[in-house]
Amino acid sequence: MASPPDTSKAAKLERCNSYLRRVNSAKIISASSRLLFRACIVATVALILLFALHCPPLLLLSHYSAAARSSHRGLLSSDVTYGGAAWEREVRRSATPRRRSGLTVLVTGAAGFVGTHCSLALKKRGDGVVGLDNFNSYYDPSLKRARQSLLSRHGVLVVDGDINDTLLLTKLLDVVPFSHVLHLAAQAGVRYAMRNPQSYVTSNVAGLVALLEVAAKHADPQPAVVWASSSSVYGLNTATPFSELHRTDRPASLYAATKKAGEAIAHTYNHIYGLSITGLRFFTVYGPWGRPDMAYFSFANYILSGKPIAVFRMQDGTAVQRDFTYIDDVVTGCLGALDTAERSTGSGGKKRGPAQLRVYNLGNASPVPVAKMVGILEELLGKKARKQVVTLPQNGDVPYTHANVSMAERDLGYRATTDLATGLKKFARWYVEYYDRRSKKEAEGAASA
């Protein structure tokens, strides 16, 4: 009888082959997985590169936002907390009018030049005033803090905050039913826009929108808004004197463009939401507590310190002229605009009827050559300037400004009564006294250190 075939070797061989097949299959799968993973990585990188080429702003958004917030915090904002019962009591106290039928006004940019003077004038006549300012570093913040101290001594609270902070704006208009907003906060200066253009968009465009959004949709009742436009909107206009009816579609600087954009934005919020809005085009405002970046202010500094000053002229040799307007006259115009502002017609973000929309020039209606202004300062300060006459550069400055103020005279009761010599005399007196006191304080501080 034949013995059964020996299958042990065949079985072992089959098991070995099966094992090898499994090992090879696993290796293939593993290799395929690695290859697929690498392909995915390559594809992802390729997509990112492609996306970056076509949409760099989106990829840089988080980095830009962080950088912008940091820069904005230094120039345009503050990190001050607000709220609480004590804070609300202070806000209400400052906002309470002392006279019957007095206005209740939120003044943005209250620690600024025009804002300080308007706040003092409103408080003096018995209106309620609450200020808002971010004390940015565009120029010496200590001057703004000194203005804040002056306002505080007269019972005006200035809240440390930014107009782009919609939560703060909403809180303020919730705590106090303001009858009016005097919106003076802005990034000023023509030439600075060439170095930091984004600050103008942030403050003059986004800030205005933030304020109007809260006023239109969250305030109950809606306040009437009076805001600072600028004579710069006339730009390359050559028809003089500048009238509110002249074209303003040729700005000569980014600053002017943002102010012109502000006027268009104001029209939009008036049309859609029924906000009563009045724009004021200021012409070269000067006086005590002024802005150090303005020519008359910096010239006083340079004359006293012996530094040379640049006096501009046109390419054809004609003098650059400005319609210098004294601060008290501008304040009269601002208060006139507030007093004649009609009520807004909207509620809860809905327009109930047509609302008032106005724009006015506030100027002196008497242009003066800049060289004459320098001569007046020389006499007042008792020292000659080291003048360097140079051609006006193409950096946004315009050669000539001249306001037609007939509409403001008719509707606001506006009158410019201060000539340049009188106004500069008041400025020079303040300038010498302010910086003399400041120098003494700094010397005392150094001695005690």
TrEMBL record:
Predominant place of localization: Golgi
GO MF, one annotated term: UDP-glucuronate 4-epimerase activity
GO cellular component: Golgi cisterna membrane
Record membrane topology: Multi-pass membrane protein
Record's keyword terms, sorted: Isomerase, Membrane, NAD, Transmembrane, Transmembrane helix
Name of protein: UDP-glucuronate 4-epimerase
Occurrences of domain NAD-dependent epimerase/dehydratase (ranges): 105-343
Compartments reported by the entry: Golgi apparatus, Golgi stack membrane
EC number, as in UniProt: 5.1.3.6
Membrane-traversing stretches: 35-53
